[in-house]
Write the C-alpha cells for this entry.
Amino acid sequence: MDRKTTLVSAGIAFGLSALLSQIDLRGAPAAAPIVARQPAAAATGASYASLLAELDQRIDGLRVRANKRSDDWLTRMHLGAALLERAGLTNQIDDFARVQDVLDEAFAIAPPSSGPLVVAARFNFAIHRLGEAEKYLDKIDRRAVPRRDDQLIARVLRAEIAVQRGQYEDASAALTAAAASEPAVATAELALVHARTGKPLEAEALLEDAFRATNPNDARRRAWMKLQLGIVAMERGELQLALKKLQEAEAELAGWWLVQEHIAEIYHRRDQHAQAIAIYEELVRTADLPQHMDALAGLYRHTGEKQRADELIARSAARWEEQLARFPEAAMGHALQHYLQFGPQERALELALANHAARPGGDAKVSLATAYLQSGQAAEALAVAEQALASPYRTARLHDVAAKAHTALGHSAAAEEQMSLLLAINPRYSSDDHSH
C-alpha cells in the first residue's frame, strides 16, 4: 500500500471514512479522516485547529461526567467515540491507547451483551484488528432489537473488512445495496472500491455525487471527498487536476496535513523538490509523524543531504518500532514501507508477511510482492502478484511489481505486457514516485 496515496479514508490509514460521521450513535461522533495541524493558505471553510479545539472541549466535558458516574457506560461510550475521532485527527498512538482504555472501562461496567459495541467495532477496524471488529459486529447482529443505525454501520464495516481481505465482489455488492438505500453512507465507499478495481471514472462520478450531497457546513466530510478525488486523479497521472482537487480540499478544511502531504507528493512527481521539502519539513515539525520523516529523508537523499536523511531515518525507525510494539496490526502496513525504502529488507519482508496474513487484500499483496522482489525472491514475488492479478484489484503499482518480477525471471514478453497495462492506467507512472 502506497503510504500517501491510499484510497482509503485516510489514511489513512486508521478508521472508517468521514461519511459515517453523519450517523447518530446516540450522540457519539464517528471516526474522522486522519488529520493534524498544518499551517496553510487562507481557506473558505473551517480549520483543523478549531475542529480539534471543539473536540477537546467535548472530550474534557465527557471525561468529567464519566468520572462522576462510575457505573455509567453510556457516557463512556460517548467519550470513547470522541477519543476515537481525536485519534483519527492526530494519528498519534497515545490517542488510540486512550480509546482502548475507555472502552475497557465501559465494558467492565456494562450489562452482559451490552456496552459500546459499535464504537468498539469501529475502533478495532480502525487499528486493523479485523477479527476483533467482527466479534463486536456479531454481537450487534445478535441483539434482540438492533437499532437501524447500528445495523447500517455494521453493514458498511463488514464491506470495508471484505475490501481489506481482497473480497472485492462481496464488498461491491454490499456497498451497492447500502448506497441504494442510504447514499450518504455508502456511495463514497463504493467509489473507492471502483478506484481499487480499475474503474476510476466510475469512482470519480460517485465521489462527485457524494460531494454534491454533503452539507455545505460539513467541512471535514467535504474536504475528505475532494481529497479522494485528488488521489484518483493522481493515480491516473493527471497531476494538474489532482492539485486542483487538493487545493479545493484545503479550501474546505484549512490545515489538514493529509492534503498537504499529497500536495508535496505532486511536487515530488513534478521534480519540484524544494517545494516538496518545504512542506514535509513543516509537517515533521507540526504533525510529528514517522511517514513524513520517511518522505523527507527520501527527498534529502535525492538532493544529496545524506546526514540529514540518516538522522530522520533513525528517528522514524524508532517511532515505527514503538508503534509496532503497541498497535502492531495498525502499524505494520505502514512501517514496512519504511523498511522497503531504507532497509533492512529482512525486516520489510517479515512485516509484509505479517501484514498480508492480517488483511490479504490487493494493497498488501503488492507490498508483499515488492518485499519478495527486493529480497531477491522473484518467483515468490510473481506468485503473489499473480494472485492479485487473478482478482478484480487493479493498480499501476500491481502491474509495476509484476513487470519487475517477470523481468527478473527473464520473461521479457510478459514484462512488456504488464508495462503496457501499467501505462494504460497511468501514462506518467514512475516507480520513483512510490519510493519515498
